[in-house]
């Protein structure tokens, strides 16, 4: 029982690290990760009998996940998942989301497209089919799918958690020291961006 509980905790740790990364798009995988963790909890509770304390702890974890689960109001999460060529609307169908929910998601994307991203008459309106990393697929075909690339930049570039941003703020202490506390805000911004981009380039 202890081993299974530790394995469950490890899954939560792995999911946290995955969604907290900064070198690849993470927002589109927020919904799949939530579903994965909720399914793990339900499977965990079904496979064996546990004490009331363990059941209560697991139930609270599930309730916490459900509390923050991206709903139909979470347009950014839904858009990121659907625009990601690795997921698309097919993900929700494969996960047996009810037809009404899928219809709501689809209509939200259509409304977003019509109000902000619909191409002009001479622009291409095809879809990206590349199965590589979501944002990269649109970067590679930006000239072919300029409007879809705009959506990808606007949504897939959003981090799935605040961890990458908090990490940058923490690193800023190395730049803004007691000897450099008078730096211009724009200079600080440029330096922090360059540092982040160089780190990403080196990781590649």
TrEMBL record:
GO terms for molecular function, please?
protein dimerization activity
Q: Where is the HAT C-terminal dimerisation domain?
A: 140-198
Coiled-coil-forming residues are: none
Task: Quote the InterPro entries the UniProt record gives.
Answer: HATC_C_dom, RNaseH-like_sf
* Official protein name in the record: Zinc finger bed domain-containing protein ricesleeper 2-like
- To which species is this protein native? Gigaspora margarita
């Amino acid at each position: 029982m202890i081993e299974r509980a530790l394995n469950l905790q490890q899954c939560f740790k792995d999911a946290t690290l995955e969604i907290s990364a900064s070198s690849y798009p993470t927002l589109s995988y927020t919904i799949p990760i939530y579903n994965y963790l909720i399914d793990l909890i339900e499977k965990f509770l079904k496979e064996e009998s546990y004490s009331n304390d363990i059941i209560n702890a697991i139930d609270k974890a599930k309730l916490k996940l459900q509390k923050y689960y991206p709903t139909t109001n979470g347009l950014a999460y839904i858009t990121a998942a659907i625009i990601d060529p690795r997921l698309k609307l097919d993900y929700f169908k494969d996960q047996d989301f009810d037809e009404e929910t899928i219809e709501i998601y689809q209509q939200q994307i259509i409304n977003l497209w019509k109000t902000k991203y619909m191409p002009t008459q001479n622009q291409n309106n095809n879809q990206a089919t590349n199965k590589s990393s979501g944002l990269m697929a649109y970067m590679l075909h930006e000239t072919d799918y300029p409007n879809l690339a705009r959506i990808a930049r606007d949504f897939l570039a959003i981090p799935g958690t605040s961890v990458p941003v908090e990490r940058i703020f923490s690193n800023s202490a190395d730049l803004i020291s007691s000897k450099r506390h008078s730096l211009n805000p724009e200079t600080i911004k440029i330096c922090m961006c360059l540092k982040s981009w160089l780190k990403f380039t080196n990781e590649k």
